[in-house]
Amino acid sequence: MSDYAKDVLVSADEVEAQLDEFESDDSDKRLVEVDVDTEAYDEAHAPGAIGFNWETDLQDQTTRDILSKEDFENLLGAHGITEDSTVVLYGDNSNWFAAYTYWQFKYYGHDDVKLLDGGREYWIENDYPTTDEVPEFSAVDYEASGPRESIRAYREDVENAIDRDLPLVDVRSPEEFTGEILAPSGLQETAQRGGHVPGAQNISWAAVTNDDGTFKDRDELETLYAEYGIDGDETTVAYCRIGERSSVAWFALHELLGYEDAINYDGSWTEWGNLVGAPIEKGEAE
Questions:
Q1: DSSP code of 154?
Q2: Fewest CB within 10 A of the end CB: N or C in the chain?
Q3: Quick one: which H or E segment has residue 149?
């Protein structure tokens, strides 16, 4: 994995070899499974893995926003994570919510964080060890730095991208992109209007991963985005419906390719599709 811009992926074999450390209260390493709910975690997870519920643990329930710095500090500290801990994150859907959590860790200045390549499905399907035991770690004080606004996009950044014709990467399904549907099947429709941000290109989040959920190599990722004219020379905004799928694309762009001006619009279509007067396009991109 040394061909990537940053050393931010850990293989399942590497995690398995360190399970004793992940299970130890005295260790400086923590393993965290992040899903939209914890039902799968409750049934089986990697030994020593802490379970985070993306919706209730990593979102402010009042503002539908990421956690405040104080809440972020309290969450991590309560689970024995310090600013110096090496944290490995993984989750379902090829790390949708784990990638979002990774981005939130980086936003609050936690440098030593990585993703388990392939996520939960890879771990389970390849018969790595599992347990239903929930680990308990001694609470510690956690002091976050940041926020690092350079990796986060807001409404005005999207408007600026439209005005300046900067790359906008819509990672949703083609049906969401064209406005045919508002959300993937079975998921909540969180926007009033369908379509996409004017000028956006539809590059699926799944295009950056292999069939087993692991990330494609650097050459493949460079080729993928270069076909759409994205080479890291300009600010590139990634978005989806709620910010989790776009975090996978942001991870590939910013962390694996090293495109430092890639930013994640976590408000995504839930915000843009509900804004009064925001420009929207429907149908296929030109």
A1: -
A2: C
A3: none
**Nearest Cα to Cα of residue 134 among 80, 96, 84, 94:** 80
- CB-based contacts of 163, cutoff 8 Å, min separation 6: none
| Contact criterion met (CB below 8 Å) for 137 and 77 | no
Tens-digit pLDDT profile for residues 69-105:
999 999 999 999 999 999 999 999 999 999 999 999 9
State how far the alpha carbon of 182 is from the alpha carbons of 134, 178, 197, in Å: 36, 10, 14
> What domain count does the chain have?
2
Q: 177 is in which domain, residue-wise?
A: 150-272
Catalytically active residues are 240
Which residue in this structure is represented by tokens 């061909």? 3
Enumerate the β-bridge partners of residue 238. Answer: 169, 264
Same domain, 70 and 196: no
- The first and second tokens of residue 169, run together, are 């990467």
pTM of the model: 0.95
| End-of-domain residue from the set 126, 147, 168 | 147
Question: Mean of the pLDDT values across residues 151-169?
Answer: 98
Is residue 179 domain-shared with residue 115, that is, in the same domain?
no
